[in-house]
């Protein structure tokens, strides 16, 4: 009897110590579900997230380009905006975006709230004005109620719209990826191939840029560090913000969480195959040619970063009133 | 003690008899939640419903024009399709569409299944081909699994795609509208104004065309029966199908369930105000000029037809593979 009690206990302690050590020592950290959010603000933000009335045409919402059914992206090289305008750059995922040290490829917004009002009056995206967006929301009684619940007042401003959307975006984490289960001590959560891929990812230096809970999102780095990256996309990255020529082609290192869902890859959305993206990275960032076997192992590891997708129930958006501005196609 | 038992019982019997009589005698019938559906097929159909890869651009899904967050419509005069093509006619709601005796304004599809493959290869809508849509779905292993669960085989055809989407659409009923609670015997479910509006709706003859569970969807009728309806829309309605000049401007009578959400109104989507739509109907269909008070009462009644909106959790669509055709913008 004593034996059967002691054995599981010692196993448990072993597990706990593996767990503690991996969580402490690995450069990639676990993603936990969001907590401590303002639920009334999340609910309001979810309505705004899905509301196409924040766009001039009333046909484009945040979810059009960051579809929560497809990894928080649109799976297009670059997005389709107002009047089928093709945007200049690939749409990054909003999943786990809260972990980004800044928002946008070139970091021009400091956080989710600062980012969220941008697309609304971007002529290539939602093509509206902040004033009309606020008038639209304010014309709908049910929104006034939601704002009162979230902010204690029915006064509506673009700032509060952005804050509520940002609060909703904070719910968009993807916990319990197989990689996280492994980090927490479950040895069987990764296949041998995935473990080998992760080892390679660390050994050859990918981890220098892609680490932390989001496996990226923590710094700017040059695309084409050791060898130029060939692209037709004229974007200069960070240099457009700093006007410093040495920042040319520096982009925020993207998250690799859910990367198997967020094709096509890179800021130009030119690469459809994850294996090809991995081989390009090794080549242009590290000056290293990977064998097919090596890149396949890394891909297998990257697939272990796909977490539980947020379970989002579509809101029932409150109807417009005679005061609501009508769509302009 | 005896008294307290007998009183509720007799009240109950009174309620039951009101209930039975309203349900039997009123020309509008209760909407009940859908039952007996194939759940594996519903789940598959939901994925297809939200999958923009059924369109040439990979940017347009069924939900783009029949947004389940906005009453199953896009709230535009006419829909935006591939490359921002503005469609020829207003998008009808898919909520309760199963009750329609035929599908489309002119009835050219006999049921939901016959309808569902139409938009995919319509150049103004999803602009794809059925062959490419089937190739797309077949290239994705998780879809093969879903087809096997739903149909017992992983063979994929446009016919099965349509059947699965139709099965999902059958879930899109909106039960428990206040009007239905009243039909079932709850006297307080309608306000006095709504009851007066319903009485008017019956007395002046709206009910002749708008009846049954969907409050419409049971017949074709001429738009402009007693007086021409002025519109810039060239659609001839049923006549385009029958080539019979006497069918000119005959349309399927639309459902009035959730009509407060499905603005703008009529096949041309020209009328934004429900009160104005009601007044036009009285004028052109019945030769009758309503007072503002009368039309307001009817609007109040129509608002009691808004039911519980389907609670739809977004699917997590399975990722494409190297075999999946790429989007063409
Ligand atoms: C028409 C397409 C489109 C729409 C609509 C759109 N976005 Fe974006 N979004 C993009 C693109 C493209 C980028 C990248 C732009 C850049 O970095 O310069 C982006 C970037 C972002 C980022 C930064 C992510 C990162 O990793 O840097 C967030 C967060 C975001 N969008 C949220 C939103 C919200 C919230 C809305 C609605 C209010 C919205 N988007 C509407 C296309 C769109
Ligand atoms: C010196 C920094 C650096 C190193 C080292 C590095 N990366 Fe990257 N990685 C980046 C940057 C910056 C981008 C964004 C480039 C762009 O989009 O133009 C990126 C993008 C990616 C992408 C595409 C993500 C997306 O959503 O578009 C993948 C996949 C990727 N890296 C994997 C790797 C792998 C695997 C390695 C090692 C073989 C690696 N990276 C090494 C900085 C780095
Ligand atoms: C680009 C816009 C657009 C897209 C995409 C679209 N629809 Fe429609 N839908 C319409 C319009 C417009 C009509 C009315 C056409 C007519 O009656 O001639 C319609 C009609 C319908 C009807 C008939 C409803 C009624 O009351 O007669 C159903 C059902 C329907 N669509 C389902 C779907 C499904 C399923 C898909 C995806 C496979 C889809 N729609 C994609 C715009 C669209
Ligand atoms: C003779 C048949 C007939 C009668 C009577 C009739 N309707 Fe209609 N109703 C229709 C038809 C047909 C349409 C579609 C017309 C169109 O879209 O061009 C329609 C459309 C509507 C619409 C717009 C629905 C939508 O989603 O676009 C409303 C609202 C409506 N009717 C309410 C009423 C009311 C209220 C009355 C009585 C005052 C009434 N109807 C009487 C046949 C009728
Ligand atoms: Ca991408
Ligand atoms: Ca309509």
TrEMBL record, chains A, B:
Modifications made to the protein after synthesis: Binds 2 heme groups per subunit.
Required co-factors: heme
Pfam families: CCP_MauG, Cytochrom_C
Compartment annotation: Periplasm
Binding site residues for heme c 1: 62, 65-66, 82
Region (Disordered): 310-329
Gene3D superfamilies given in the database record: Cytochrome c-like domain
Signal peptide: 1-20
Domain Cytochrome c: 40-148, 192-306
Cofactor binding mode and count: Binds 2 heme groups.
InterPro entries the record matches: Cyt_c-like_dom, Cyt_c-like_dom_sf, Cytochrome_c_Peroxidase/MauG, Di-haem_cyt_c_peroxidsae, MauG/Cytc_peroxidase
GO MF annotation terms: cytochrome-c peroxidase activity; electron transfer activity; heme binding; metal ion binding
Chain positions recorded as heme c 2 binding sites: 206, 209-210, 281
Keywords: Electron transport, Heme, Iron, Metal-binding, Oxidoreductase, Periplasm, Peroxidase, Signal, Transport
Amino acid composition bias (Polar residues), ranges on this chain: 319-329
GO cellular component: periplasmic space
Protein name (database record): Cytochrome-c peroxidase
């Amino acid at each position: 009897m004593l034996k059967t009690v002691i054995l599981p206990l010692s196993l448990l302690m072993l597990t706990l110590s593996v767990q503690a050590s991996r969580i402490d020592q690995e450069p990639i950290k676990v993603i936990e579900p969001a907590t401590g959010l303002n639920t009334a603000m999340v609910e309001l933000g979810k309505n705004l997230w899905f509301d196409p009335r924040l766009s001039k045409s009333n046909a484009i919402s945040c979810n059009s380009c960051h579809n929560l059914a497809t990894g928080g992206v649109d799976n297009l090289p670059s997005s389709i905006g107002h009047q089928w305008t093709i945007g200049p750059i690939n749409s990054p995922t909003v999943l786990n975006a809260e972990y980004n040290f800044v928002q946008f490829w070139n970091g021009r917004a400091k956080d989710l709230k600062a980012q969220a009002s941008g697309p609304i009056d971007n002529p290539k995206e939602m093509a509206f004005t902040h004033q009309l967006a606020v008038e639209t929301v304010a014309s709908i009684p049910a929104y006034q109620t939601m704002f009162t619940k979230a902010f204690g007042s029915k006064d509506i401003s673009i700032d509060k719209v952005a804050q509520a959307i940002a609060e909703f975006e904070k719910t968009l984490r993807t916990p319990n990826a197989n990689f996280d289960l492994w980090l927490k001590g479950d040895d069987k959560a990764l296949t041998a191939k995935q473990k080998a891929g992760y080892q390679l990812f660390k050994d050859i230096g990918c981890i220098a840029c892609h680490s932390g809970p989001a496996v990226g999102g923590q710094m700017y780095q040059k695309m084409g560090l050791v060898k130029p990256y060939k692209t037709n996309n004229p974007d200069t990255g960070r240099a457009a913000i700093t006007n410093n020529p040495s920042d040319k082609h520096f982009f925020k290192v993207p998250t690799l969480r859910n990367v198997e869902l967020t094709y096509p890859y890179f800021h130009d959305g030119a690469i459809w195959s994850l294996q090809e993206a991995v081989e390009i990275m090794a080549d242009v960032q590290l000056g290293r040619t990977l064998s097919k076997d090596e890149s396949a192992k890394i891909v297998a590891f990257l697939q272990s970063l796909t977490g539980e997708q947020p379970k989002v129930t579509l809101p029932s958006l409150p109807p417009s009133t005679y005061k609501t501005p009508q769509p302009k196609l």
